[in-house]
Amino acid sequence: MSQGSSARVGRSRGRRFWGVVIYELLWNLRKKKLIGMVIIAFALATLSLALPTLLGGLTGESSVRNPQYVIEGASIGGLGFFLFGLVTAMNSMSSEFEGGTIIPLLTKPVSRTVIFLGKLTGAFLTLVPVYVLLFIYQVIGGTLVYGPQSDLNLVVFVLLGSLLSTTVWIAIVFALGSISRSTLLTALVAFGVFVGLSIVGTTVASFSGQQWVLTYLPGSGATGYTNLTATTSINVTQQGINGTSGATGLGISVSSGTDSIGATLATLVLHPSASVTFFRQVIQIGASGVTTTMVPTYTEPLWFVAAEAILIAAAYVFAFCILSWFFFRRAEVTE
Predict the structure, then answer these.
(1) Looking at residues 13-18, what average pLDDT do you find?
(2) d(CA 13, CA 49)
(3) How many alpha carbons lie under 13 Å from residue 323 in its C-beta half-sphere?
(4) Which of 169, 178, 151 is nearest to 79 (CA)?
(5) Same domain, 168 and 224
(6) Domain residue limits at 89
(7) Are 18 and 53 within one domain?
(8) Which residues contact 36 (CB under 8 A, 6 or more apart)?
(9) Which of 21, 59, 207, 221 is the most exposed place for a label (fewest CB within 10 A)?
């Protein structure tokens, strides 16, 4: 094949790919669920900004200045990542089969691989402007409510981390939709996975001392603190949190999971030489009441925690996209 013919074939494939991307973008913009989720996200962001001021007005206290509010609180959070990923992707594949719209789509001179990649790209590009607008809104609102913000350059890291965190759930939901070809079943299984990882997995791992397992699962991961050493223990009692072995407090909280990539990257830029100590919880019931002791289990450099979370997220995206593509390519379509 001549170079001219190869170039024409490449341009043709490019046009078909972007045609599918535009189709998916328009499809996502028409989803009332996505619009509703955006409205809810902005409403919750507004509430988190306005509530402290409203409560301060009722109690007569002035609002507290917090120059780190945007960096500490700008992330959408694990539940937000999951919900955005779910509503963006849950019927991207399954509804095509349920509604029969996959038939005219496959009659086009476009391969299933191009259709799959176009749909995946369209789902990701749907999130980008939504997240950008939401973060801009939080920066403006945080400045107005909590005063001038510092380290705003780190918002880019939080934004990119949030997009990667959400893409993990998009890939999982894509795979469920390609396998089940049912929107309802996709949503139910996805919710089951999220609840299981968030509640059951976290509880069992925290009390069994196997928090490291959470690092390799989608979600919030294990939680550690930056200024404690592996020989420090923390007692949590009714009177509060008391450190021993010279600890002055819990320090900066760092999570190792795929849902915390943005915050971990921002913390890494601010504290590049920090280490993170992870704990297991031990509950003791005695005459003085219930005491929970946080016993250190292992310590890792912060840069390693961040790099590991990024690599694990990328691995999940790759693995579930391959799984989704495999089932989509082999799905039988009947009129």
Answers:
(1) 82
(2) 46
(3) 16
(4) 169
(5) no
(6) 3-208+316-330
(7) yes
(8) 87
(9) 59
